[in-house]
């Protein structure tokens, strides 16, 4: 299951949460308005990008930017964007403790119908203890969260694919005589993405996902992670999984200007308070932890630049080089974020996509009519 025939695929990430993925008070961050979401999704659609993926967020991280304090709910957001776009895959990101699989199965099928088979579900296990508490639940230990997610996926898969009523009885879910109709448009089910990095997260992705997003400190580590994930999927589950990266773009006409821009957004007006809050919550919950202050500073900077994605700082040519190197590491695509999404998408279309097209990484977008007037 792949989103298009392009050799290297691109998705816009994080337009549904305030400040997007950049933890900074720099101007032009995401504000979270419907006009803004529509404008950016239509632009991504016109550029022929593959997907529009939200962040699942229920609580922000404070600091001067009040990072992610505002967040559109992702199924209803995807439903609206599905109606306003033509080719783009619109995703929902769902943290499994926040929604029952029966409701998620119905919502996903509904958006899949609205979009005529362009819905994708990004399933995350839910690392944020404070958010889980908002649902009156206690955070499970790290690996057990993936056991819960595994059962959640078994039930939603059954609901999407089984005809007639059936009894489901598991450790976490009990659903007597349950069924869901209508089935999704995509068969056997909508495209499923996950974002696991730990051993438990990788196994979950290998078993259930069509695409898994990874975070890595550099491309060498990413290459190994890609190979490992594909190996687990093939050897243990007889499946194929695409692996995607996550990139934060700081692009200017010259390297010096790009460096200055990055320095401004991160060092001058970066929100270290919110990034620290996020990192503390995340590392307390993640499988791998470190007390090394240098490592913490590196994590903090990457967190500020783009939710820990690769910071890509350079000219259109060097940004294209980096994306091509991601592809050479075996990645099928990457999510993209920018401190300023409007300007970033404009520049992507006029300066970066033509380079990728000339290098055979992507085909030019078909001219598509915006579905805005419907
Ligand atoms: C591209 C990407 C997007 C993610 N989006 C979310 C999200 O929207 N909500 C969330 O709670 N976690 C999100 N995560 C975090 C993952 O669910 C996961 O906790 C993290 O990658 C660590 O992996 P692990 O659980 O295997 O340790 C995202 C991670 C990545 C790489």
Descriptive account of the structure:
The strands form two sheets. The chain has an eight-stranded parallel barrel with strand order 1-2-3-4-7-8-9-11, surrounded by eight helices. A two-stranded antiparallel ribbon has the order 5-6. With 374 residues, it is α/β, with parallel strands linked by helices. The model has no long low-confidence stretch (mean pLDDT 95). The chain has a single domain (9-358), classed as Luciferase-like domain (TIM Barrel), CATH 3.20.20. The protein is 44% helix and 15% strand. The protein contains twelve helices and eleven strands. The chain binds flavin mononucleotide. Flavin mononucleotide (FMN) binds at residues 55-56, 93, 95, 124-128, 195-198, 201, 213, 215, 246, 286-287, 335.
């Amino acid at each position: 299951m792949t989103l298009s025939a392009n050799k290297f695929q691109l998705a816009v990430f994080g337009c549904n949460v305030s400040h997007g993925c950049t933890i900074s008070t720099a101007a032009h961050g995401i504000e979270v308005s419907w006009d803004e979401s529509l404008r950016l999704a239509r632009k991504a659609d016109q550029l022929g990008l593959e997907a529009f993926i939200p962040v699942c967020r229920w609580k922000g991280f404070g600091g001067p930017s009040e990072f992610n304090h505002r967040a559109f709910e992702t199924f209803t957001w995807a439903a609206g964007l599905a109606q306003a776009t033509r080719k783009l895959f619109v995703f929902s990101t769902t943290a499994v403790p926040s929604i029952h699989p029966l409701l998620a199965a119905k919502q996903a099928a509904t958006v899949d119908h609205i979009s005529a088979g362009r819905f994708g579900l990004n399933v995350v296990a839910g690392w944020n203890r404070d958010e889980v508490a908002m649902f009156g639940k206690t955070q499970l230990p790290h690996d057990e969260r993936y056991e819960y997610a595994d059962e959640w996926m078994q039930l939603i898969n059954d609901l999407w694919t089984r005809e007639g009523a059936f009894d489901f009885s598991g450790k976490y879910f009990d659903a007597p005589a349950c069924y869901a109709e209508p089935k999704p448009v995509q068969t056997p089910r909508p495209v499923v993405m996950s974002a696991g990095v730990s051993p438990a997260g990788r196994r979950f992705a290998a078993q259930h996902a069509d695409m898994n997003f990874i975070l890595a400190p550099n491309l060498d580590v990413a290459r190994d992670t890609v190979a490992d994930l594909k190996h687990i999927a093939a050897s243990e589950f007889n499946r194929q999984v695409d692996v995607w990266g996550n990139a934060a773009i700081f692009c200017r006409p010259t390297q010096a200007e790009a460096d200055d821009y990055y320095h401004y957004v991160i060092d001058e007006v970066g929100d270290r308070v919110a990034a620290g809050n996020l990192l503390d919550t995340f590392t307390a919950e993640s499988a791998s932890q470190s007390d090394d202050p240098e490592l913490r500073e590196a994590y903090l900077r990457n967190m500020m630049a783009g939710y820990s994605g690769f910071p890509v700082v350079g000219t259109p040519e060097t940004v294209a080089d980096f994306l091509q190197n991601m592809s050479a590491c075996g990645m099928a695509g990457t999510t993209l974020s920018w401190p300023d999404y409007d300007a970033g998408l404009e520049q992507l279309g006029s300066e970066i996509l033509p380079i990728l097209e000339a290098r055979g990484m992507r085909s030019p977008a078909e001219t598509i009519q915006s579905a805005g007037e419907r």
